[in-house]
Amino acid sequence: MKPILSPFSDKMLTIQSRREKIPFRKEEFEVVHHFYQDMGHEFTTTETDEVTLQQVYNQYREKYKLPFPEQIQAIREKYQISASKMSEVLGFGINVYRQYESGEVPNQSNARLIQLAKDPEEFRKLVLLSDAFNEKEQEKILKRIEGLIQEEKKDYWQLIINEYLLNADAQPSAKNGYLSPNLAKIQQVIVYLVQHLKPWKTGLNKLLFYTDFGHYRYHGKSLMGLQYRAIPLGTVPSNYDKILANALETDLIQVEYIKLTNGNMGEKYLPNPQNTFNESLFSTEELKTLQSVVENFKDKTTTQIVALNHQEQAWIDNHEQRGLVDYGYAFGLRWR
How would you classify the pairing of strands 41-43 and 4-5? Predict the structure, then answer.
């Protein structure tokens, strides 16, 4: 969070933090609590409160295997029906599904129904049991469901390829920033960073880390859903070679091989003039994160980026074991 002007004096205040336990649904969850302090007063802002609550909701959803808002919205959108109709099909109150999409945490029984609806064959049973549609509407939605069933059979190998590339648990967790990995976003972030910074391979891997962890720091979830591993050269996507190879094989970016002073060959990534960044995949907040990464690293060399990354506690605590990095380290990033 950025410094703010104190409401009690003319001082600019920087954010402070400490670990606290927050109660939620008769349980307690440990979070990083952010606050400001001046003249004996401690206070928070709407922004800090949202990040605190997001941490609680993330942990609760992970513990009980509840769907996250993005997943809830995606399930409805693939059937191309309104949130109110989805509520009717599942037997919820008229506005309940919309509230779940907006971030309200569902109870466990409603969550199971939502997860059941993800399967088109199961959702067809629910549609046939409900009175949500008239005859014409039901015929249309059943036709849509049948199309999805056939698409999923055809897309089986594409799903296998995605799992191979991402090498990550598809379910949101503390290791992927509570966001299922999104290959389309990953590809477009690479396009954006390469277009603006033309980084070397080593630098690009760190820029991806700062993009995901930087977004998590302010919003309580990652931007791409990637897992990161601490290795000798820094914190990198756990399957970075496959991800970058895919970006090259699909002509999203280009590469120039340059002989380095030590005799090794370096990989410098360059934009493909025929590809443009697809900003429609990103929210306003996500675009701001991308812009911030470019602004903060545009004047840094690869050596400087690696040096900064090696000062991050995320790398210091995990590199000896080459361990996966928990997104909780985002709150201690040295880069702002």
Answer: unpaired
